Amino acid sequence: MATSRAMSEPSIPDGRNGSSSARVSENGIPILGYLYEIPAREGRAVVVGAGQSLTIINTHGSQVCDFWAFNATDLNEFSSMPHQHAVASGIGLHEKSALVSNARRPLMTVIEDTSPGVHDTVVAACDVHRYRQLGAQGYHDNCTDNFKQALQAVGRQPATVPAPLNIWMNTPVAADGSISWLAPVSSSGDRFVLRAEIDVVAVMSACPQDMVPINGADQMPQSLAFIVGEGE
């Protein structure tokens, strides 16, 4: 099997879509209170200042959002799910949960979740290899490439692709350790709101997965939306 460019050059995507050119601004600083769309299968990056809120909206109700947060002044510090598990002594996430970094400190805090609270902190972001294993022919949009493109669009170069927080993804872990790939239990208009504890760069991908039903029984990726606000 051919080695992807991403294996030898971690910041370079294997393919491109609108994530490369569409952005909230040249440097990622948004208009506060403005409703931004993330089209289906694409990603966006946005700067969220300390104390500001980031509201992610599941517009259609069945769309998973792969999510990452980085220290805005040092991309070597990022939200880390393995560290999250250790700090929280669990794999769940709920209101008042801190999203911790690889330095084991809070980058953001969940301040509101209007969904039933089913999210995933275990599964890696989809990539070209995942879709090849599932039988995709040719290039398939994926969250790993959306992540890289979204950061590059606002002038950032990631050195690695951390495991994401998969908001609204319903992949329960059974007692025997197996994972099920189920449709979300979220609803149209559900909000997931985080407060930034330091200045962060947040990256969101409207997951392009259309080969297993994690984006709904119809396996149809949809758009998401987000707003950055002044916070509490």
TrEMBL record:
Record region (Disordered): 1-23
DUF1989 domain span: 37-201
Listed InterPro entries: DUF1989
PANTHER family from the UniProt entry: RE64534P
UniProt protein name: Urea carboxylase-associated family protein
Species of origin: Mesorhizobium huakuii
